[in-house]
Backbone:
């Protein structure tokens, strides 16, 4: 019998704890498929964040380390410097990366650390119950922006790809979404490309993946995808922002 | 072994390299910066890693990552920087990651000043960050010991899988003294738990999250048992003329050397004086202090701190057995004659002269 689909070897197969309709499961699988296809599972070390994906060490079938909130890029920096022939990835949410970890991600990219960051942007703090994040859209209601995010109170949403692509040390910066089969395929291609560019030693690589949070958005999984298309993608345009050498 | 003149901070850096440290992650701060500068020069020449981090938070988290690979790694800072590192130190303790953290103390609270201090005693000896933990704290009193205790620190860190702090006053960091340069360490313990990529084995996980209540309780019970083992194996202290002494000084670091001279001065004036010098500040030599409290008449804690911090451990050790006096001021290292004068006042008050 011909095998046409199987669980990637780079996933343990442990049952996800994520809410119905959450994109983390898809994104985990895409990272794992990229690792499988590049045959780098045994050379890869993953760093998980504080946030909904804090338990990612239970799901990825490679050496894993769980970081303090926002500090994954600093941790990955040291590991990569000490073990330069390994592949390093950090898996971070928008609160972790764009708020408390803003310093670490900016400096890791400035130094051109040869690591890959998977940045999952769902516009809020999911695990703590849906508070405002730096990525929360203008007008978006969260538990800590109950009147909708206002410029005069909370300023503007952080566009991390645009910001990080200015840094000379960044070799690959790309934003994708997991709202449709076509975009899911594009996301996997981007993640694979990021790992390949890391392997070539060209510099810092990051793939921002626009993701859904039906639980905290108060929408059904299907309506969440629609909300992402109508609100997130217009503000956070998809595509490659920087490819070193191109 | 070569005998050379070295600054205390340089003796730490050279000792670390000789102990096999191949990763230094730091952030500049007076009076510790010479350690980072020495490492920046040396590490690239010996296949090691030096990274000047963007912040103290990043530096201690680089130590977290570096230690997780099984390499011997370290950072160095001073009070305000150590405060920022406390989050990472808590994670290192729970993750059981061996490493060395150097604190070349300056005065606080706040920015305080850049003069010498021993006022980081509380944050060093009480864990310092959040949660149930301790770290081993070593207090050298000479440039030689800056090297020797740095090397011992790495050994204890690996032996007990714990962060170790080396704490010294800014005075000692900047004091130039002859140092016998020790031989390179060549034998290291295996670290099968390290995160190196899972080639040929099951994946390893370094983690500090223990969500089910029983898991966290089991984890902290394990740490508590480890701390008990450290208490029973690693307490180090020095006694000087304590056997017949009526008045016992307790001092560590550079203060212990000055106090020794004050002991001799006081003895020449007819006061039977002695000194206990804790070398491990955690675990504290409670047993030694308690034993001597049974035979002496009073004790004096001498510290470079205005409020007094170690005095609380002396009180715990002596449990009210003898009166405890205090001599100390922040940001100033007193000379032996000044201490002797204050000892005369204390001795008179206690009826010892």
Residues:
């Amino acid at each position: 019998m011909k095998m046409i689909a199987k669980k990637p070897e780079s996933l343990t197969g442990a049952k996800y704890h994520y809410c119905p309709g959450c994109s983390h499961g898809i994104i985990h699988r895409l990272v794992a498929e990229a690792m499988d296809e590049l045959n780098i599972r045994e050379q890869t070390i993953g760093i998980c964040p504080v946030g909904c994906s804090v338990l990612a060490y239970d799901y990825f079938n490679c050496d894993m380390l769980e970081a303090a909130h926002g500090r994954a890029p600093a941790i990955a920096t040291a590991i990569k410097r000490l073990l330069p022939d390994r592949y390093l990835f950090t898996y971070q949410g928008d609160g972790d990366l764009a708020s408390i970890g803003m310093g670490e991600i900016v400096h890791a990219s400035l130094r051109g650390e040869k690591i890959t960051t998977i940045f999952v942007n769902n516009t809020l703090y999911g695990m703590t119950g849906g508070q405002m994040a730096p990525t929360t859209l203008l007008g978006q209601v969260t538990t800590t922006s109950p009147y909708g995010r206002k410029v005069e109170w909370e300023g503007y949403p952080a566009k991390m790809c645009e910001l990080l692509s200015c840094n000379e040390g960044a070799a690959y910066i790309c934003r994708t979404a997991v709202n449709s089969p076509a975009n899911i395929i594009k996301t996997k291609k981007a993640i694979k490309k990021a790992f390949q560019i890391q392997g070539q030693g060209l510099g810092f690589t990051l793939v921002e993946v626009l993701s859904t949070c039906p639980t905290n958005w108060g929408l059904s999984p299907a309506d969440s995808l629609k909300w992402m298309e109508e609100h997130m993608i217009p503000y956070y345009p998809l595509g490659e922002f920087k490819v070193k050498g191109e | 072994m070569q005998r050379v003149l070295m600054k205390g901070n340089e003796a730490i850096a050279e000792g670390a390299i000789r102990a096999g440290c191949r990763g230094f992650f730091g952030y500049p701060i007076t009076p510790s910066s010479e350690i980072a500068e020495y490492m920046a020069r040396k590490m690239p020449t010996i296949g090691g890693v030096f990274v000047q981090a963007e912040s103290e938070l990043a530096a201690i988290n680089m130590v977290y990552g570096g230690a997780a690979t099984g390499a011997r790694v370290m950072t160095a800072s001073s009070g305000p920087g150590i405060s920022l590192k406390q989050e990472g130190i808590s994670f290192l303790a729970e993750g059981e990651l061996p490493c060395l953290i150097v604190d070349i103390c300056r005065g606080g609270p706040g920015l305080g000043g850049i003069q010498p201090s021993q006022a980081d005693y509380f944050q060093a000896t009480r864990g310092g960050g959040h949660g149930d933990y301790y770290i081993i704290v070593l207090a050298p009193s000479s440039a030689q010991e800056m090297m020797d205790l740095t090397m011992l620190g790495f050994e204890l860190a690996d032996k007990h899988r714990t962060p170790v702090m080396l704490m010294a006053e800014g005075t000692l960091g900047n004091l130039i003294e002859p140092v016998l340069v020790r031989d390179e360490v060549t034998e290291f313990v295996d670290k099968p738990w390290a995160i190196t990529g899972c080639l040929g084995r099951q994946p390893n996980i370094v983690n500090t999250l223990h969500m089910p209540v029983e898991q966290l309780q089991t984890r902290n019970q394990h740490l508590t048992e480890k701390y008990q083992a450290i208490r029973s194996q690693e307490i180090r202290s020095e006694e000087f003329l304590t056997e017949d002494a009526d008045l016992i000084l307790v001092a560590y670091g550079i203060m212990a050397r000055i106090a020794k001279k004050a002991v001799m001065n006081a003895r020449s004036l007819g006061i039977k004086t002695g000194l206990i010098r804790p070398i491990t500040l955690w675990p504290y030599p409670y047993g030694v202090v308690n034993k001597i409290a049974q035979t002496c008449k009073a004790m004096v804690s001498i510290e470079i701190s205005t409020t007094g911090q170690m005095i609380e451990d002396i009180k715990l050790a002596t449990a009210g057995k003898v009166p405890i006096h205090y001599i100390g001021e922040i940001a100033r290292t007193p000379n032996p004659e000044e201490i002797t004068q204050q000892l005369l006042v204390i001795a008179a008050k206690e009826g010892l002269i």
Summary: Chain A touches chain B at residues 41-45, 47, 54-55, 57, 60-68, 71, 74-79, 81-83, 86, 103-104, 106-107, 111 (CB under 8 Å). The mean pLDDT of chain A is 97. Residues 181-199 of chain A form the longest helix (19 residues). The longest strand of chain A covers residues 170-177.
